[in-house]
């Protein structure tokens, strides 16, 4: 028989046990909160949820990415700004969003997602496995430190994204990738060659090639400097300079009478014969009219591509391979 003194003790035990059971049950039946991935941009490659950009700035950034996609097959970039990452680490969050969006091309995994978290003041350049062949983690770190972080610390968000996107694509430029591949082939030849003569020949080959490339660029620089002296009010951007380097490297001399003209497609997918321009002054109006055709890129987009949607200019093609490559930063 329970005494009066035992009753409160038993009651307290029952209440504690019931509360513990409720907690355990809640833990079993309540699922963990799933990550609410922001919607992929319906147009373009920029999702500015944190509202950092004006409509005109966002439009310009979208056009920049679209143009770069048409010029360069090695990278497909997108941009995301958020007010918070829902408690996720910036790296995990960026990887999940990039995978969900399908940044990059299916099978090539060449996507790059640039993320800004305004709540935690964190930044991330997420690089897919395929893209790391031309944009290493060290490259991403350098771009983070030199372009993205300084711009955000100064509150110059549009400039920071523009500079970062430009640097990402320029670092993965086809000519730059070829130069790096040639450099690594040279090292491997020297390392594994059992014949000193073969190693010397390889070094000589790449030395001649590098010398030829240097002469082409020096000539191009002289032409550009002359043009700027004659037209001081006209601005020649770094993108124009790089495009002319590539064009001149691929068009060192005028084609012969029996040569088949090279062709390229403009941003609307219309095919044009690529005219030979002997100087920067004769090349510039052609480039201004058809930048995708006269950028010197060897990549020709399909005729079905649009400014932002599917095709060569789109940053979303079902890509994946986001296993943690890239670099993180803060501001």
Automatic annotation (TrEMBL):
Residues 210-237 form a coiled coil. The chain crosses the membrane at residues 187-208. InterPro entries: TPM_dom. It comes from the Bacteria. The keyword Repeat does not apply. The keyword Metal-binding does not apply. This is TPM domain-containing protein. It comes from Kocuria varians.
């Amino acid at each position: 028989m329970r005494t009066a003194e035992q009753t409160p003790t038993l009651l307290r035990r029952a209440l504690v046990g019931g509360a513990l059971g409720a907690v355990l049950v809640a833990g079993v039946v309540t699922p963990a909160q799933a990550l609410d991935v922001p919607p992929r941009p319906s147009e373009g490659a920029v999702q500015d949820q944190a509202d950092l950009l004006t409509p005109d700035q966002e439009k310009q950034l979208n056009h920049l990415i679209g143009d770069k996609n048409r010029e360069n097959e090695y990278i497909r970039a997108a941009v995301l700004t958020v007010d918070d990452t829902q408690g996720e680490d910036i790296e995990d969050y960026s990887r999940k969003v990039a995978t969900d969006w399908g940044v990059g091309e299916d099978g090539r995994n060449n996507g790059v997602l640039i993320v800004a978290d305004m709540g935690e003041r964190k930044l991330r350049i997420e690089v897919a496995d395929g893209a790391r062949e031309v944009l290493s983690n060290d490259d991403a770190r350098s771009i983070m430190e030199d372009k993205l972080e300084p711009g955000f610390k100064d509150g110059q968000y549009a400039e920071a994204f523009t500079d970062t996107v430009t640097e990402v694509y320029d670092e993965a430029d086809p000519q730059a990738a070829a130069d790096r591949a040639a450099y690594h082939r040279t090292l491997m030849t020297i390392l594994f060659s059992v014949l000193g003569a073969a190693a010397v020949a390889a070094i000589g080959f790449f030395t001649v090639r590098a010398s030829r490339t240097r002469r082409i660029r020096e000539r191009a620089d002289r032409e550009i400097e002359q043009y700027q002296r004659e037209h001081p009010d006209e601005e020649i951007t770094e993108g124009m300079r790089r495009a002319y380097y590539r064009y001149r490297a691929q068009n060192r001399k005028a084609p012969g009478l029996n040569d088949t003209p090279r062709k390229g497609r403009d941003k609307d997918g219309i095919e044009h014969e690529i005219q030979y321009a002997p100087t920067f002054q004769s090349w510039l109006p052609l480039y201004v009219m058809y930048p995708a055709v006269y950028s010197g890129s060897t990549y020709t987009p399909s005729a079905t591509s649009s400014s932002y949607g599917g095709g060569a200019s789109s940053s979303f093609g079902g890509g994946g391979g986001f296993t943690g490559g890239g670099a993180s930063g803060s501001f």
